[in-house]
Each structure stands twice: as C-alpha cells, then as structure tokens.
Amino acid sequence: MFNLRTSRTRLAGAAATAVLATLSLTACSDGTGAKDEGAATTTSPVGAVSHSSQSTGSTGTTNSEGTKGSAGSSGSFGSGSATAGSKAAGHALAPKAPASSGKPVTCEGSNTRTVAAPLNRPVNHMLLTVTNTGSRTCYLYAYPAVRFTDAQAVPPVIEASKPQAVVTLQPGESGYASVSLSATDGSGTNGRTVKSLAVYFFGRSGSGSVGRAAHPSLPAKGVYVDDSLKVTYWQQSMDDAINW
Question: Measured between alpha carbons, how far apart are the two ends of the chain, in Å?
Fold first, then answer.
C-alpha cells in the first residue's frame, strides 16, 4: 500500500509538475504574444505619427516651397531687378548737369581761346572763333574790338548784324564773328598787309574793354586790309557770323 501510494503520489506529483510546466509555457507564450501585440500597437501609433509627420513635413515643405514660389511668382525680385535696370536706364538718359560752376563771367582773353582764320567765301573775310576754356559760363558782349599791327583805332561794327540776345558760352562752347578785311570791288583806300592781330573784349556796359586781349596768329604771309575794314557782332553760330 505504501509503495502504491508512493507511486501514485509520485505520479500525481509528476503530473502536477507537467501541468505547471505546461501552464508556465502557456503563460510565457501568452506574455510574448502580449508583448508582440503591445509592440505592434505601440509601433502602429508611432508609424501613424511618423506617417503623419512625414505628411505634415511634406505639406510643410510644399507650403514652404509654395511660399517661395509665391515670392517668385510675384516677381518681387525680378521686379526689383527691372526697377534697378529702369533706374540705370533712367540715369543713362538723364540730362547732363551743366559743366559750368559758379556765377557767369565776361568772356575775355584769360578764359577763352581765340582763333583767326581767313575765309574763301565770302571773299576778303576772316572768321574769329572764341572758345570758352574756363569752368564758368561766360558772356560775349557786343563785338570784337580788333586791332591789326599798329592801327590807332578799332574798325566799326556792322549794326545790322546785332543779335537779339547776348551770346552765351558754356565751358567748351564757341562764339563767332567775322571781319570784312577789304572792299571786294577794290574801292577801299590805304590798303596794306598786316601780320599781327589783337582782339579786345567789351564788358557788359560796352564802354570799354575788360580783361586780357587775345592775340591769335595770322598766316605767315599776313592778311590784306584797307579802310573799309569792319566787324560783325558776336554770334552764337558760325552761319550767322559769315552771313555778312
């Protein structure tokens, strides 16, 4: 009986041990499954969040690019470049500032250069060209008071040649006057050849010369003059000067 009971007891213990082992394995299996399911559950939301983040990020990127696109499409930069170009073009086309600086002065020998050139047409004429070499606007008043060699007086002016306004020379500009040297029909008296010339400039009052005289060169052979010698008023254009 003792042995039988012992055997039964051992069998019962072994059976119990087997049941416990089975339950333990089942429990472990269930735990692992729970963990897997939990991991899956946890992964799913993370995946969703990740997907959502990617979607949001993508949307954000799209919006960001869209914003840039909007800026590009609005042409703010292009418009700025165009504006800058327009300003540059506008600066290139803008009128030049006057080269003159300061208050206008009277044209005279120290701020001008005078050239005397005999003309073929009209015959027996010489053209005086006065160029403003100064930095200020200058006025050519009245007419040139010319004196050839040892002449005691200046020749008269052709009154009909008087312009409507005083000749005004910006720096670099020129004014003109012509000198009728001798009678074209030979009726002049006291004809002679002269080789030097002085040109004096009148002031605003016209009562006398001002500043320095100019001494333009004459041809080496000189020029022929007689008592019919006369001059025109200063003119703004060459054509007006040689018209007399």
Answer: 170
Helix (H/G/I), strand (E/B), else coil: 132: strand
Q: Per 3-state DSSP, what percentage of the chain is helix, strand, and coil (rounded to 5)?
A: 40, 25, 35
Residue 207 has pLDDT above 50, yes or no: yes
Nearest to 231 by CA among 150, 140, 168, 170: 140
Alpha-carbon gap, residue 58 to 235, rounded angstroms: 80
Asked if residue 108 lies in contact with residue 140, where contact means CB atoms within 8 angstroms, the answer is no
Structural domain includes residue 63: yes
Task: Judge whether 98 lies within some domain.
Answer: no
Which residues are CB-contacts of 120 (< 8 A; sequence separation ≥ 6)? none
Q: What is the pTM of this model?
A: 0.60
> How does residue 87 score in pLDDT terms, banded at 50, 70 and 90?
very low
Whether residue 107 contacts residue 169, with contact meaning beta carbons closer than 8 Å, is answered with yes
Work out the pLDDT band at 2, boundaries 50, 70, 90. Answer: very low
What amino acid is encoded at 82 in this protein?
A: A
- The domain boundary, picked from 69, 93, 117, lies at 93
**Residue 117 shares a structural domain with residue 16:** no
AA letter at 164: Q
The Cα–Cα gap between 216 and 200 comes to 11
CB 199 within 8 A of CB 117: no
Report residue 182: phi and psi, to 5°.
-155, 165
Give the total number of structural domains in the chain. Answer: 2
What's the confidence (pLDDT) of residue 60? 40
